[in-house]
Amino acid sequence: MLPGCAARLGGRPGVDFCCDAPRSTHRLKSLLEVMRYENLVDPDTLAAHLGDPNWVVIDCRFSLAEPALGERLYREAHIRGALFADLEKDLSGPVTPRTGRHPLPDPKALKDRLGDWGIGPDTQVVAYDDAGGSYAVRLWWLLRWLGHRAAAVLDGGLPVWSGQGRPLTREVPTPSQRSFPGTPDDDLWVSTETVEQGLGSERLLLIDARTAERFRGKTEPIDPVAGHIPGALNLPYPGNLAGTGRFLAPDTLRRRFVGKLGGTSPQDVVHMCGSGVSAIHNILAMEVAGLHGSRLYPGSWSEWIRLAHRPVAREAEGPPGTLT
């Protein structure tokens, strides 16, 4: 925000609005320049900015069961002006015998791809999917990792957009290439070694976003070993959403997470899932709730189980360092 600005537009987290700047400054700056969406953006706001050259919309639809489905659906119909990002080709790095299923991409390759999509240092990015934001959050987090805060997830995604009767198109846009100058902030994530060292300590609280059935080891449809990391707590990411498919109100989300965190600082919380993608849904929810600074374990469960010596817990949650 500009110096002296203190107001928040409508109280919406992640939207900065400057209200006390000199009137002459307001005449020189567009609304876009004094507003930045950092967490969520609603369909009305996105609709008002379709065609805005300073906004880039990215379709992040994906299916773990059918990886090519997202791009096929994109080519059949998408929000006007949207480009397509593939989780495995664009938003992940190569899988190795030591990594999880969706490693972080090489920063340079990612920056080149972002530039190809027309994303520059001042671009407002909006990501969406058709799965409650569980894939769109990956692009949101990657942009933050590279220092780009003007990134938001479309609240409700394509189902809410379409349900409101808003138009879709088959036309694939041609973006104007730009230079993306981001620098990775590796304080936003932790390695498997950090998780191993933190087991049993008060410096690291793991929150697992997978379903209760997978967390407890009752079923495992994707990875070869069932269960969870000892001491982790389970908070499935769909609980961040209302029945409408949109995120719960900030105060409701805050109660949800504070109830799990107890007295743990948000900065000591590390989020995980099966492969470091849907875990980010909980990071976004905490940011919306005003609980800032939690981190990601990108390797997550699929990396943890790569080496057989790492402990595995099943059934109920337990205190750190306790096998259940």
Notes on the structure:
The chain has 2 domains: 36-185, Oxidized Rhodanese, domain 1 (3-Layer(aba) Sandwich); 189-304, Oxidized Rhodanese, domain 1. It contains 12 helices and 9 strands. Helices cover 28% and strands 9% of the residues. It starts with 22 loop residues before the first helix and ends in a 20-residue tail after the last helix. The protein is globular and about 50 Å long. The protein is of the alpha/beta class and 324 residues long.
| CATH A-level architecture of the largest domain | 3-Layer(aba) Sandwich
CATH superfamily of the largest domain: Rhodanese-like domain
- Give the N-terminus to C-terminus distance in angstroms: 48 Å
Helix content: 25-40%
Series of H and E elements: HHEHEHEHEHEHHEHEHEHEH
How is the CATH topology of the largest domain named?
Oxidized Rhodanese, domain 1
Question: Largest beta sheet: what is the strand line-up?
Answer: 1-5-4-2-3
CATH class of the largest domain: Alpha Beta
Topology:
Elements: H1 23-28, H2 31-34, E1 40-41, H3 43-49, E2 55-59, H4 69-76, E3 83-84, H5 107-116, E4 124-128, H6 136-145, E5 151-154, H7 157-163, H8 192-198, E6 205-208, H9 212-215, E7 233-234, H10 250-261, E8 269-272, H11 279-288, E9 295-296, H12 300-304
Parallel strand pairs: 1-5, 2-3, 2-4, 4-5, 6-7, 6-8, 8-9
Comma- or semicolon-separated keywords:
324 residues; alpha/beta; Oxidized Rhodanese, domain 1; 2 domains; five-stranded parallel β-sheet; four-stranded parallel β-sheet; 12 helices; globular; disordered N terminus; disordered C terminus
